[in-house]
Amino acid sequence: MPLNFRFAIISDPHIAVPQTIWDHPSRFHLVEVSMAALESVLNQLEPLDLDFLLLPGDLTQHGEPDNHTWLANRLAQLSYPVYVVPGNHDIVERSATDRSIAAAQFPGYYDKFGYTNPDQLYYTHEILPGVRLIGLNSNNFDSEGKQLPMGRLDAAQLLWLQTVLADATEELILIMVHHNVIEHLPGQSQHSLGRRYMLENAAELLALLRSHAVPLIFTGHLHVQDVASWQGIYEVTTGSLVSYPHPYRVLHFHQDQQGQRFLQIESGRVTEVPGWEDLQTTSRQWMGDR
Questions:
Q1: % of the chain at pLDDT higher than 70
Q2: Is the pLDDT of residue 289 over 80?
Q3: What is the spatial distance between Cα 48 and Cα 248, in angstroms, rounded to a whole number?
């Protein structure tokens, strides 16, 4: 079946409306530009006739209700479909804190952007004829509801995923999840810092995806632009909109009559926003000072 579609990825935008910004001297997220950077990218995407937009997590600074509300309202104004998944900064603990929403509240904020079941943090949709998106939740909590460093897909979600894949044998499957599934840095899964950006049970997920010939995974979290592969599965991770070099991606997928597949990936970046005319230089220096 021939396929031809164009989409964009904006990852880790860490949206922070001004009254929610809090000072953290060692943070790498330049959240002061989050809203303006998002507007800049959306303006650049507007004339491209996109089929959809993906946001693979860390939508907000730290899960604040005001930031989730602002982003959901802004995304609702777009002319093309948008799909999101939660990152570790979106549901900081299982229960609500004085700063952030509870995990169970997340689907309610994004019921126009993938979520149809208010009791489930993952979903699937046929987003185009012959194309199915699966949005997964990789946030991982201990028995007290505190977030653990590595991501993980729980047993119920994996069982659900197995059922979805078994029923979607004739479709192109796209996976979106926040944490990395394939290593993007040498030895990432074994390094004490690098492994924090990965799924703890990545091998289990990869085996399942390989058994169903799933070709593409889209992630964020690592704040780098990279493509990694494992046994025919490609993972495209996209850098953060609030970290140097403030990137986003535009992708064009084509499948011809013979079933050959081609994915063209273009990267753009935000170079300036009001008050930050030389954003690239300033941001790089700001990160280096950390």
A1: 99
A2: no
A3: 14
Q: Where are the alpha helices (DSSP H) in the chain?
A: 34-45, 65-75, 106-109, 155-166, 202-211, 279-288
Q: Which of 232, 192, 241, 265 is nearest to 55 (CA)?
A: 241
Q: Using CA atoms, how far apart are residues 62 and 75, in angstroms rounded to an integer? A: 19
**Could you report the per-residue pLDDT of 32-49, keeping only the tens digit for each?**
999 999 999 999 999 999
Helix (H, G, I), strand (E, B) or coil at 180: strand
Counts of helices then strands in the chain (DSSP H, E): 6, 11
**First vs last C-alpha separation in the chain:** 50
What residue ranges do the domains of the chain occupy?
3-288
Are 83 and 72 a contacting pair, CB within 8 Å? no
182: three-class secondary structure by DSSP: coil
Question: How does residue 290 score in pLDDT terms, banded at 50, 70 and 90?
Answer: low
Q: Among residues 280, 246, 287, which one has the least CA distance to residue 37?
A: 246
The domain 3-288: what is its CATH number?
3.60.21.10
Q: Which residue has the tokens 């999840």?
A: 177
For residues 57 and 229, give the distance between their C-alpha atoms in angstroms, rounded to a whole number: 21
pLDDT digits 0-9 by tens, 102-144:
999 999 999 999 999 999 999 999 999 999 999 999 999 999 9
